[in-house]
Design a protein that fits this description.
Length: about 200
Amino acid sequence: MNPGPLTEDASIAEFLGRIVASRDLELEWIDLLSQLEYVGCRKIMKSVGFESVNLEILRHVSEEASHAYLLKAVVEEGGLRDRSWRDGRFAEAGWRYFQGLDQRISALPASEGLHYPGVSWAIERRVLVVYPAYLKVTRNESLKKALRRILAQEERHGAQFGEVAFPDGYLPQVAAIEEALWPEFTAAASRLALQRV
Ligand SMILES: [Fe+2]
Ligand SMILES: [Fe+2]
């Protein structure tokens, strides 16, 4: 049995509620999402060999790049201009989550040849619970507009990777890795949210 979609739980709502309570904090959060979309885009390019690139992969790359762009545009419109991701409040926690996911999934023996769809499946599954939950609580109108556009594409990506014929027993391992890393990430981000700058 393959793992089903993630469901929204109280911890996601509580975490996002804390983020949107402060305008500055929310801009930091949007900047992190932009960074993660960009990292996702790069990871696709790095994990798929030149000879295997097809129209569908190019579409995926271009859509993830556009998600990074749309979110960064909201950050700049909000007044956080020309700021490097290196200096983002949540940047390091976000890196740890994504790098950890990438490395642990790559280390699974069954990931041979499945790195790209495996990581993508895990990411889209998380995105499809976090973005709708975020859309419900944010009051940033530009963000809502961007997020609705992004979400329509993420739903298609989610469906696309949901149709990949992964070997039996593979996705439960991938899901377990992601579900262990996500709470570590939100715990770290929650601590950072409380810190004064
Ligand atoms: Fe995306
Ligand atoms: Fe996506």
